[in-house]
């Protein structure tokens, strides 16, 4: 397809010609090389019709635009889209070669930022190169292969299912689906083969920018910046490395720090072929980058010039360490330290944010980071089954002060580490990614994989496999050395979870943990009270399922299928939600699936009798309960426990039940605000252990917090016993025991219909609140229609009730910008939220309404 709107961009000696835009696209059921001249020659028009394709763009999206596919997020459409991954796809376009790329000494590279996945690239009828990795950019040397005037470029690719169909499947999470796609061999996002939270949909196509890069003698291929803070933080070494390919050339590498004026410039004699050089300068008394809540996430601006190519990079100076010293009770600590400060890590796991993951642009990255920061996160874990974080996403995290724990892209499978070609490809991939992301201060941990060590040690199907630990070398040596050599300012961890000292990877007393037993190994529903006794040192994956918001259900379910267990409902459901016992055996009698049984367990309600929207709300409220239990248990143990990171933050496609607090449409689920409160810098936690009731105050800030503690035992039907208000001071960066009384005093008040509450007050106004029950909501005798008084208190709205109210909901669809939502009312204890709107808030529903009332219209 002819492309007329071609423009040349100049940067002194090195130049760029964008090849984005309109291409021609078609498919073949068999190998496209059956008739290569049909597509690769210059003059004859292709016999097969070419549809217009906008590059970069997934093939699925192109087919949608031409009416050949429907939105795979809707109904059962993702099943109808599977033929796409089972075809070859051929792109074609022509372009006029720029004069500067045709000279006798010109060096010309064809660059593809992302090709999904196995591709052969033809230039003017000849094979110019091939690719086999969708996770990194590809650079093809086409020096001397361009012609004056019109050139023809053809890209023939497939998803990987053809090339690897006869390879051994090893073992992969997902069973037959992973065996079918051979995903362990495919260097692409692993979750595309299907995971519990996403249907199988293999992306395919030219998914990133395409361009020619050319220069008179040598093309810059890589620029990497590393900042190394001194142990005492008094200085920092700033190192810039440049790489180029082409002819022998004398070149200059310059670095200037815009904010300070520090600069360095050196000339180099670069040999023919691949060449590297580096410059270094020292910043004295650098201004440091801190994570959110610990200080300012300050960044410097580096101005870099190399062989005529000029770039600007934002970077930060920070020191990363992990305290793994001996724990006084058992095992070791695992405390992340930034700039010699202990940081309690709060956040969730991040996965690709769309079925068409390449369409998550800078704007959506910023929105997702904004929502994470709004929920008081300071860390996101980039899970190892997705893709590497993009420059835009890392930049947003740098700016917001949100740290990144980043897995390399390996998850829940046995990878062919014994295959020499595979290991070489992994090393090249790791070098490319680590160097590209080196300047981002938010990136604080590189981790070898997700759950491979755990699988090899603990999962029956892995332990019984004859393959053995074929990939152990990759994670304990190859990747560790890459990070050590290229990114020494970042901490490396071989697997997640992992326990040093030859202990089981899930050992709670050392290393990091994935605490899933409370959720996945309790028959008859999730008993999230089990979290209350967990002592994990660094939990970074564990979660609770909850139904999506009614608005999201309405968006992806056809109108005639908006009911539990319809075909589309079931297609979008999580298999862990559908199973009777997630890791147990099925009973002879048909029982409710796990997520549905959770609703029955905690409320006594039969999900089969609930309309879709009411079921969605009560399921969402129970997810909020579970995540709050998870978070508060770990926060009150700081720094014996040094994190509360849950599974997972965001979705990639619309689900019936999901693990997230923000769905794929960026709607806030009912758990979002309870998680936000649980992660607040100052929080209260009520616990019962060893015959006592204890109240903790948690202070993440680095300043003491002074205020009052109001606490007591309240009756669900109204009234407070043993109430008192005392002045308290919370130590900085610590959890402080504020009050304690014998549990027998609670039991004397009738613990079956009562709870214990704690409220921290600042200036007489609520700053944090928590409550504790030991009976489930269906057993508490909740008033289905409590009287709630709403009044204005300055620029705040005040809520009061004479009876206990479980989760006041001002929004159930997750579409409103609110200061708070899904909060409790303790009898006779006012609760306030910021409110500067003219109209007072409107309550849509409460958790109490499920025990006899209803949802009121807004």
TrEMBL record:
Residues 37-207 form the Beta-mannosidase-like galactose-binding domain. InterPro entries: Beta-gal/glucu_dom_sf, Beta-mannosidase-like_N2, Beta-mannosidase_GH2, Galactose-bd-like_sf, GH, Ig-like_fold, Mannosidase_ig. Its EC number is 3.2.1.25. Keywords: Glycosidase, Hydrolase. Pathway: Glycan metabolism; N-glycan degradation. One of its GO terms (biological process) is glycoprotein catabolic process. It catalyses: Hydrolysis of terminal, non-reducing beta-D-mannose residues in beta-D-mannosides. This is beta-mannosidase.
